[in-house]
Amino acid sequence: MLHHLLYKANLLLLLSCSACALIAQVPSACHKLAQHRPAAASRTASHRQDITAMAACHIGAQHRTAAASRPASHRQDITAMAATSTAVDSESTTNTPNYSNFDWHDHWYPVAWMRDLPVNTITKITLFDVDYCVVNRGEQDPLALEDKCPHRLAALSEGRLTAQGYVQCAYHGWSFDATGACKSVPQRPNGAQQSTMLCATACPCRVEQGLLWLFPGADAENAKPPPRVQEMDDPAFKWSTAVRDLPIDYSILIENILDPDHGLFAHQAAPFDLYTASRDAPQTVTLAETSPGFFSLSSAVAATPKLAATKEKTAKDTTLNITGALTGISTFRPPCTIATGRRDVDGETKFQACFWIAPVGVGRTRFMSAAVGRLPFSVPRWLQHVSLNNFLDQDTHLLATQQPNVLAAEYKAATGGEPMVRRKIYKYSSPTERLLVEVGKFMDAAVPKTPNRYAEPLRLLMQCPDRSTTLDRYSQHTQICPDSRGAVRNAKALRFVAWAAAATVAAGRVARLGSVARAAVSPAALGLAALGYAAHAFVGEFSFKYVSAKRDRDLRGIPKVFADERLDE
């Protein structure tokens, strides 16, 4: 759902920010990205066939719907839509997925882009409110240990990686290999390996499509591999990645990403309308349970304007001028993977917006994304982050205001021994929400079983922080993204040099001309000052900036995509 906006914004920013090219040189030590190509071509071919079938079936359904008589009541449409299950695709084994089969311990979880993990440096990450220390070991396989030394329970992430590749605790020097085996207790020479009680807890990990995945369950060897995005295995596609830690609960963020209806209003972005539904262009929901506990929830809709269209503004709107029979398809493969894009009848696409949502803990989620497209060039990563951070700011605080109400309802249900039913606390009323109804059913069954969900029940009663906290880009993004940190560092250096040079040029002119006023109109001094200001503004993009006044300016753009006059229709 984001891919149209990301694509457009990235290209515009790339053209308009050419003066910032000096910033782009980020130290090469930031990363090495290993892209693993799939070993089994048959799996990719099968997935493409499923997508092709989904697009073709949806287009056929569109023609049948257009020929059929319309229901008398819009409310009846929504009720029937929410109550009706759709046919499943060819991979499914049942027409009614049993979401109670879902087990969080049976799945792999993405926790970081490998390029964001400095080589041979210990990094702390969190999953299900459990801390782990992970290490990108370059050409070797990565390692992951629970972030707790068995000696005195200090954090291993405060330690270092030794010359032998061991994780060494900074407290007393105990050292552990990738399996968690204790290799050295300095105070007890040659005695470390005599007892397994001295071992740290290792967590299975692997790299797929540039992401580091952890498996917190007990049987990683027999677990299904993480889901793949087929376009990311195609050399014809280029992709740029992003990451941000959001103070939003996993369940709320998943629903948000799969909800195109909010795009016209929260983001003032017309391309979202290509994924909305209407009575004339209904949403088709496809459910699949390929094996017990493994699901796929997909929506398909004609990729044409619905809400954003008016009598005066349809095909003339170049942002939504669609040619050919394209279907907007969004697929959620629990627990973490979402892919959205427009596909033709052959299942082909030119662009995909992909998301990986890691449940860090109650009220905390790591958002990772990739813009995957047939682009003639790769967009600089830091430039994409400027665009995406502005985009995320537009609705993150909205989700933070929603969160206390949703989690309080969950707390009430959990402490009262009753199941939480989202259809009872939400008022679904849009034809686009058919998928969200199904996602809600999955959340109702899965969320209460989340590891450590109710270890500290009062966390469900957290209040909404102020905007400067919920939208703090520096702590949520800049600190964990070496590309952005490098760009900011270079921009600060450029700012200093430009302003210093501007002052030097101006001072020289004053000395020669004897007039401050005449010196001030120096083209060189003004140009250098402007360059310094541009670098200064760029630095500001990587810390809190989405104040209420900026929100209000954005909201004034809503009538451009949905006119106020239409509210009375």
UniProtKB/TrEMBL annotation:
Q: Its GO CC terms?
A: chloroplast; membrane
Q: Does the keyword Cell membrane apply?
A: no
- Keyword Plastid assigned to the entry: answer is yes
- Ranges of residues in domain Rieske: 108-214
| Gene Ontology MF terms in the entry | 2 iron, 2 sulfur cluster binding; chlorophyllide a oxygenase activity; metal ion binding
InterPro entries in the record, alphabetically?
A: Cholesterol_7-desaturase (IPR050584), PaO (IPR013626), Rieske_2Fe-2S (IPR017941), Rieske_2Fe-2S_sf (IPR036922)
- Where does the source fall among the domains of life? Eukaryota
Q: Where is the signal peptide?
A: 1-21
PROSITE patterns documented for this protein: RIESKE (PS51296)
What is the protein's major site of localization?
A: membrane
Alphabetical UniProt keywords: 2Fe-2S, Chloroplast, Iron, Iron-sulfur, Membrane, Metal-binding, Oxidoreductase, Plastid, Signal, Transit peptide, Transmembrane, Transmembrane helix
Q: Where in the cell is it found?
A: Membrane; Plastid, Chloroplast
Q: What is this protein called?
A: Rieske domain-containing protein
UniProt source species: Triparma verrucosa
